[in-house]
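In this supplementary section we document a worked example of the pipeline. Step one takes a protein sequence of length 143 as its only input; no multiple sequence alignment statistics are reported here. Step two produces a three-dimensional model, which step three serialises into structure tokens for compact storage. The input and output of this example are shown verbatim.
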Amino acid sequence: MLKELFDKVDAKLMRRFGYYFGGLALGVVALKCVNDQKGTTFDYGPNARTLKQLRLRETLIIDDLAQQTIHQYQLDSMDLQYVLHKGDVDFSKSHPRVKPCPDYWIDATIGKKQNEQIVSTNFAFIFERCDSIATLKEIKVID
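The serialised model returned by step three reads:
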């Protein structure tokens, strides 16, 4: 008699867990679809927040030293967008608490097609973030 009672409780409990996890899965899928349509991003990590703050600045200024490196390595605006979306902020080399304009060291690997081969180069981009302006101060090639 006790065994039958445990079997009934077990079946009811398992059915409740099934309903719960089924509803949870449907809710997560619906939330994902709504957020994709709205273009909502979830930038919770410090790396993602820093890159988003640089992207949101009204103006991006490129200093002469960085402009020379851009011409030398044939970088374009798509490469800079890639860095601002997929780059890796190195906080040990950055100065995020400097007032009024902190600077950030962003590492990125960019591949360019040369002679039917893709050549990847490691770069370090040094950005300065002010109130409404982001400035690309320097681009260094990392070996």
